[in-house]
Amino acid sequence: MFKKGLFGYVLMFLIIASIVFTGCASNKETSTATPAATAQTTQAAPSATPASTPAEKVELTISAAASLTDALKEIQTSYEGKNKQIKLNFNFGASGALQQQIEQGAPADVFLSAATKNMKALVDKQLIDAAQQKNLLINELVLVVPADGKVAVQKVEDLTAEGIKHVAIGEPQTVPAGSYAKEALTQTKLWDGLQAKIVQGKDVRQVLTYVESGNAEAGFVYKTDALTSQKVKVALSVDSKTYTPIEYPAGIVKATKHSKEAADFYAYLQTKEAQDVFVKYGFTIPK
Question: What total number of domains does the chain contain?
Fold first, then answer.
C-alpha cells in the first residue's frame, strides 16, 4: 500500500513539475520574441511622408491669325510665367485655313480669327459655343511699299501706274486681309483692272515678305503687320468705308479636352494686362 501510494505521489509531482517547466519556457520564448517583432514593426513603418506628386503640365493649342504672331508671343511669355502648369502651343496661319482645320477635327483649344465670318462659320456648325466667343480686337488695312521704294503711291488709284508691276494681297478665299483688300479694290473699281499685277500670299505675313523683298512694289496688310517691319513703309491707310470692319473674335473650341484651362486663357486675353500688349502692337480694343 505504501509503495503504491508513494509511486502515485511521485508521478503526480513529475506531472506538475513538467507543467510548470513548460509554462516557464513558453513565457521565456514570448518575452524573447516580443522585442524582435517590435523591431520589425518599427522598421516597416515609413520614416517620412512621401512628397506630393507635382501637377501634370497642360498643353493648350491656340489657333490664331498670323497677324497676331508678335503680340501673342509676348503674351505667351507673361502667361506661362504666371501659370507654370500651362504650355501654350500656337498654330498661326490664315483664318480661313485655321477654320477649315478645326472643321476637319484638328486639335485646337482656342481660336482667334482676323474675321468674324470665320468664327461665325464655326459657331453655326456648333464647333464653338456662341456664349464662349466675343470680338476681342480691331485692326485696319493699309497699303505698304518697300522702305527704299522709288515709286510714289499716295492713293489706291496709283496702283495702276506703269511702275507698279506687282501688287501683293492675301488669297481672298482664306486670308481675311486679302478679302478686305479685294473688297476695297472692288469698291474703288480697281479690282478687275489690277488682275494682271496681283500676287497672292498664303497669309498676311507672306504678303509682307513679298514687299520687304521687293518681289512686289506694293501690298495690302494690316496696320499691325506694317509696324513690325523696318523694311516697309505705310503708303496710305485704306478708306475704312470701302471694306468691312476688321474685327478679331476669340472663342473656345467645344472639342477641347482642357475646358478649364482654355477658359482661363480666354478670360486672360480680355484682361487689361493682355489688352495693353495688343495695343502696343497697334491693335484697338472694342468699346
Answer: 2
